[in-house]
Amino acid sequence: DTAVSQTPKYLVTQMGNDKSIKCEQNLGHDTMYWYKQDSKKFLKIMFSYNNKELIINETVPNRFSPKSPDKAHLNLHINSLELGDSAVYFCASRPRRTGELFFGEGSRLTVL
Amino acid sequence: AQSVTQPDIHITVSEGASLELRCNYSYGATPYLFWYVQSPGQGLQLLLKYFSGDTLVQGIKGFEAEFKRSQSSFNLRKPSVHWSDAAEYFCAVDLNNAGNMLTFGGGTRLMVKP
Does B26 score more than 60 pLDDT? Predict the structure, then answer.
């Protein structure tokens, strides 16, 4: 009964491919996020959805497209993968009344 | 520009020694403040948070942090480090206090010597 779960945990693919990462939270939170952690451990917000509506869209290439079919799910689709997309992608969710984030275990994407 | 700084990239302490990890933010008002820990291959776990009130906050695993407005700091402390505390520690700031957007510092990797 993991609170925030991501699949797959590891993903190795070739440049130019398209891939998706899925995220589900069973905490009943309204807001979900995607963060990218680079090789130097730096964490940067990519997107945020509140109840299926996009509320934060940082400067991210439009090859990245988030989709939220319902408020418990936030998926990340990446087109035309590039070497620089290699990173760990974290999904997170947040309850309405507090600012703390609950993170998934991350999805390590390696682009060859 | 608004930012969060963790000046120490790596820290090594002996088991049983005390620990202080530094965090400074650059922002006009008092933001919401957080410390997270990331063990190898894991996601981030919240250690503690500060929204308002008492400037010394207690967290899980024996950690505490003190908010100092005059220094724009929110340093994390632990009186006696255990080997299992070896991990990456991240300070985070919610700059608009709406809970929408956490900005993270660059992290401090803690290593513990036996």
Answer: yes
Beta-strand relationship, A107-111 and A10-13: parallel
Task: Return the H-helix or E-strand segment holding A13.
Answer: strand A10-13
Query: Taking a C-beta distance cutoff of 8 angstroms, is the pair B26, B5 a contact?
Result: yes
Nearest-CA neighbor of B104 among B92, B96, B89, B95?
A: B92
Residue A18's φ and ψ, nearest 5 degrees, are: -110, 135
Q: B94 contacts in A (CB within 8 Å)? A: 99
CB contact under 8 A, B99 and A99: yes
Nearest residue to B92 via CA among B65, B62, B112, B58? B65
Return the half-sphere exposure (C-beta side, CA atoms, 13 A cut-off) of residue A65: 9
Cβ-in-10-Å burial (0-12, 13-18, 19+) of A37 comes to: buried
Spatial distance between the Cα atoms of A80 and B102, rounded to a whole number of angstroms: 28
pLDDT tens string A87-102: 999 999 998 777 789 9
Residue with tokens 């709406």: B98
In this predicted model, what pLDDT tens digit does every residue of A49-66 receive, in sequence order? 888 888 877 778 999 999
Q: Which candidate in B50, B94, B102 is best for mutational testing of the A interface (most A CBs within 10 A)?
A: B102
Contact assignment for A99 to B97 by CB distance below 8 Å: yes
Q: What SS3 class is residue A89? A: strand
Candidates A38, A40, A43, partner chain B, best to mutate (most B CBs within 10 A):
A43
